[in-house]
Amino acid sequence: xxxxxxxxxxxxxxxxxxxxxxxxxxxxxxxxxxxxxxxxxxxxxxxxxxxxxxxxxxxxxxxxxxxxxxxxxxxxxxxxxxxxxxxxxxxxxxxxxxxxxxxxxxxxxxxxxxxxxxxxxxxxxxxxxxxxxxxxxxxxxxxxxxxxxxxxxxxxxxxxxxxxxxxxxxxxxxxxxxxxxxxxxxxxxxxxxxxxxxxxxxxxxxxxxxxxxxxxxxxxxxxxxxxxxxxxxxxxxxxxxxxxxxxxxxxxxxxxxxxxxxxxxxxxxxxxxxxxxxxxxxxxxxxx
Length: 288
Known about the structure:
Elements: H1 7-17, E1 33-35, E2 45-49, E3 62-65, E4 68-71, E5 85-93, E6 95-104, E7 119-126, E8 142-147, E9 160-161, E10 165-169, E11 172-174, E12 178-179, E13 192-199, E14 203-208, E15 211-221, E16 243-249, E17 254-263, H2 271-283
Antiparallel strand pairs: 1-17, 2-5, 3-4, 4-17, 5-16, 6-13, 6-17, 7-8, 7-16, 8-9, 9-12, 10-11, 10-15, 13-14, 14-15
Helix pairs in contact: 1-2
């Protein structure tokens, strides 16, 4: 079982990897956040739904209503028909802190699979949406699962799933598809705060509220759990150092009120600056 750490201990452990002593950095960080979802529209996002061309937003699946990014199925009738979808932010990143707040609402599509009940995800280090084939179900990527629980089930949150990828957990290469985190039971339908700290292909830490619930390293392209892909894109053994960020549509309606990112790439070659930035981020308010 992975030990929980406070957010401060999490980030301090990252600092120790770089062999630096704590040091104040007076530079304000508030203006360095990138707001991926602007609360108004989806102009900076691309949509890929299995079976449909790029940016064919079947059924108005992804939409903005009441300043929320919504995943909706009210135009699907009673059948998902394996129309799994993803919405990709326009830029790719390598090192960053990703922050999202989500909740589930409504009801699952009638033929949605059991594993997709109250299930969405933050897809990390994704292949580009342009490189996905028409019927491809998932991008080659790493998934931080966003889950919910109710009276019929209790699950952990922020598990990792690996469509077309593999990671190292506790020193061992994990060949399965989904690995459970050490989180408290996932929430019901209330707003939930999730963060992911990504440092290229060295370390990834998944955080629920202020607890680090899962840590993994050395992601590579490998394995299965992705179908109808381009074999020239899925080159097994390739380290996953960067990629796009996407949100899912898997059959259960979901709302996002925040999706933002702090880009750490400019600091990766400057350990002292990285240390100072991470120290400041560890002390920020979660609703900032």
